[in-house]
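User: I'm curious whether this sequence folds into something compact or stays loose and floppy. Could you predict its structure so I can see for myself?
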Amino acid sequence: MARPVWAGNLSFGLVSLPVGLYTATDSHTIRFHQLQRGTSDRIRNRRINERTGDEVQLEDIVKGFDTGDEYVLVEPKELDEIAPGRSRSLEIAGFVDLAEVDPIFFDKTYYLGPRGNEFGKVYSLLEQALAKAGKAGIATFVMRQHEYLVALKAENGLLTLHTLHWADEIRDPKKEIDTLPGKAKASEKELTMAEQLIGAMSMDWDPGEFHDTFQEKVAALIEAKNAGVTVEKAEPAAEPTGVVDLMEALRASIERVGTPKDTGGKATASGHASASSKGAGKKAPAKKRIRSTPKEDLTGLTKADLYKKAAAAHVPGRSHMSRDDLVKALTSGRT
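Assistant: Here's the prediction. I'll summarize afterward.
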């Protein structure tokens, strides 16, 4: 079982509930080590004193705020002392309708669980009451020396905690984007066709139908390079639609998608992995060394080694060549 990332007391009115906070999401990003090109030497980040060049241990590092003339030093325990009790208290200030909280305010989601079976009744009571009222509890609390604004919600029989951005953290889009069109006038025909396209592409929300195809392609790339085979390149990005071509693009899109009636009522998600990436989700075998120095006989080299030689010889079109093509190009001395 996972350990809570924070533990404290959730209180609303005079009711107090000991709870633990658990991370609700995970990332399946493929992580790479940094290596020096041409070697298997790891590159690591170190905490270095910029004046002496010596490495500094983590316990010897303090926070410093630059005032311009000097640094004001702050110890971690001092940050805890300025808010006694706050780091273990999550007090609900009030309840709001869920629809009132704009999605842009939501940041990260956590699960909230009772710290002991004896608190199950209080936990369940709050969850059921929130679900029936359709409201969210708004609170602030301190975790890891940071104060968070949060929304407490009832979802699928449990309590969830969503960290929110502070109001002054939300940027004004009119100040950030200087190309906003405002109320650009669209013709009635263009608007009607756009609405028809939206209707034709309507579907039921099923997050399970979507997959991180880019990470699957990264895994496929690693497997392919490990096997020394060619990797197909993706299709180029679509060209921007010009104003003159807008009507034709809308018409062609509707014909391509079809009406809801023609497609059985709903459009389907297009987030599935392609056949070319099948099996790409398998974890690539661990490699702790790079390939050995290539032999002089080209026929005995792997495709990866042949590609290195082709790159050094500036062979054109090498990224699209098969292993035999690379051997022929290197043997003939074509550049």
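Summary: Residues 224 and 231 are 6 Å apart (CA to CA). Strands lie at 6-12, 15-23, 63-66, 71-74, 89-97, 106-114, 135-143, 146-155, 158-164.
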